[in-house]
Specification:
Strand content: 5-15%
Strand order of the largest sheet: 2-3-1-4-5
Distance between the termini: 46 Å
CATH architecture of the largest domain: 3-Layer(aba) Sandwich
Shape: elongated
Number of strands: 10
Radius of gyration: 27 Å
Helix content: 40-55%
CATH class of the largest domain: Alpha Beta
Structural class: alpha/beta
CATH superfamily of the largest domain: P-loop containing nucleotide triphosphate hydrolases
Length: 504
């Protein structure tokens, strides 16, 4: 692949100046269109050491309004990056709609020799690396992000020449280190790894663009043309899609045949089989609660020393007891070691990103615990039932969620997912109790009553969610919660038993 590329491409200075002037104007205009249409754009610059990434990024940014782009140098690794799944560092920097993010080095190179050790990638991450990065790109692209991947390619001799020139310059010799010279010495071997990286991550929906960079003028013009072409294609694609919505070209029958499988294809009855009569006696409850809280407090310290992170997801019916359950689980924990993340309607800033962005921002670092009071599963429940999200989008979310949880698990995050289940009569009794108790009236809202009217729709959605997102490393547990005390003991037992296994 790369070894077949002709690197002798050059450009005359006069032609370069003429073309560049026009291209700068076009790119500046396209930035305004990106803002107007709300297109999030990522430009990922990859390539050899001394291939000119910094210089070429600067040239591309020259005509742009600096208020609407960000540049990230991803070779600098801080503690936060090392203590979380490696894609976290990129997820939290993905651009909001209408903005451009430039990555100097990207998620694609973490598997390369040297980089994998630098980022301390585990064996599980390495074995699932390409599936993780491809899922990351696909999720963003399906949500409307334009990703432009540029590989800056130079020859071994050109790289060596640039290293020597830099070393002669007292103001620039710091830019060449031992690792750079090792890369030049092992050029043919590193070339094979770059070829593999490109081969494994090159798709029609996210292609690589090889930039012949021996001549910087030629490289500059090709980068401009590539970015302009991709942005213009995206604008046209969006216009065509908008026109198709206004004036469909298919009949209603044809449109139905193109839709994803209907919910009935996945119809299951998981919740209806749950035995909600389970209870615990008061004396037994107090004894077990004291024991389990002491146990999880000890495990909290072990989590920190072993650098094991935990994510606990609480979902369930309104008034199912999530708050009380979380309180009992955290009561004896060191408050510095955990965070409870209450999930409400997304903010304006959160809505301007991929829906998973706000959850990645709250993922625990190694040795810590994050408890999500409601979670990313709102995508396939409330957003689905209330019509906030198109059907194609929430159906796609099952795979996106599974991919995200797999990435967390590959890093070593221990994931618990609880659905707190009660029946309609118990929910009604709790609603009435809240309504009649002045100290608890804040807990009951008109939205709770509206949701109750859609009970059957939620049962269908939850059954499907439990079926399609129950995986080996992120399993669901349905917690019988008509008896709140029984539910608290069950969740504590599941968490402490699993942590016993994981922390040995």
């Amino acid at each position: 692949m790369l070894d077949k590329i002709d690197l002798n491409q050059t450009m005359e200075k006069h032609s370069y100046k003429q073309e560049l002037k026009d291209l700068e104007k076009r790119l500046a205009f396209l930035q305004t269109k990106i803002q107007e249409l709300g297109i999030p754009v990522i430009c990922a610059f990859e390539g050899w050491s001394a291939s000119g990434k910094g210089t070429l990024i600067g040239r591309v940014l020259y005509p742009l309004d600096p208020r609407h782009f960000n540049v990230y140098t991803m070779d600098k690794i801080n503690e936060d990056s090392l203590m979380r799944p490696f894609l976290w560092s990129f997820w939290i920097k993905t651009p909001s709609r209408g903005r451009i993010a430039i990555f100097d080095k990207s998620w694609n190179r973490m598997i390369l020799p040297g980089a994998a050790e630098k980022w301390k990638l585990s064996a599980a991450v390495k074995s699932n690396y390409f599936s993780d990065v491809n899922a990351f790109e696909k999720q963003l692209i399906d949500d409307g992000t334009l990703i432009i991947k540029l590989f800056l390619h130079i020859s071994k001799d050109e790289q060596k020449k640039r290293f020597k020139d830099l070393e002669k310059n007292p103001d620039a010799n710091w830019r060449v280190n031992q690792h750079d010279w090792e890369q030049n010495k092992e050029y043919d071997n590193v070339l094979k790894h770059f070829n593999e990286m490109i081969h494994q991550t090159n798709f029609s929906w996210s292609p690589w663009h090889i930039i012949e960079s021996n001549d910087s003028k030629f490289a500059t013009i090709k980068i401009y043309k590539t970015i302009i072409s991709r942005v213009e294609e995206e604008i046209v694609r969006r216009q065509v899609r908008a026109e198709a919505v206004e004036t469909p070209f298919v009949t209603a029958e044809e449109e139905d045949s193109l839709r994803p499988p209907k919910v009935e294809a996945f119809k299951v009855n998981i919740l209806s089989a749950v035995d909600l009569s389970k209870t615990v006696k008061e004396g037994e409850y107090k004894h077990k609660l004291s024991y389990l809280q002491g146990k999880i407090a000890e495990q909290g310290f072990k989590m920190y020393t072993h650098r094991k992170s935990v994510a606990i997801v609480y979902e369930g019916w309104d008034a199912a007891g999530k708050g009380g359950n979380i309180k009992r689980l955290t009561e004896q924990l060191d408050p510095r070691a955990y965070e409870v993340v209450p999930i409400a309607a997304p903010s304006k800033e959160e809505l301007s990103h991929h829906y998973l962005w706000r959850f990645y921002n709250k993922m625990p670092k190694d040795g810590h615990l994050a408890i999500f009071d409601r979670s990313w599963y709102g995508r396939v429940m409330v957003e689905r039932i209330e019509g906030f999200t198109p059907e194609a989008d929430w159906r796609r979310a099952y795979k996106e969620i599974n991919d995200m949880e797999a990435h967390l698990s590959n890093h070593g995050v221990i994931i618990f997912k609880f659905w707190l289940h009660i029946d309609q009569d118990e929910q009604l009794a709790r609603f009435e109790s809240r309504k009649n108790d002045p100290s608890k009236q804040y807990k009951i809202t008109d939205e709770d009553w509206r949701n109750r009217e859609k009970w059957d729709e939620y049962v269908t959605a939850v059954d499907e969610m439990l079926l399609l997102t129950n995986t080996r490393n992120a399993p669901w547990t349905v917690v019988e919660s008509n008896d709140k005390k029984y539910a608290r003991i069950k969740t504590l037992e599941i968490v402490t038993n699993e942590l016993d296994k994981q922390l040995k």
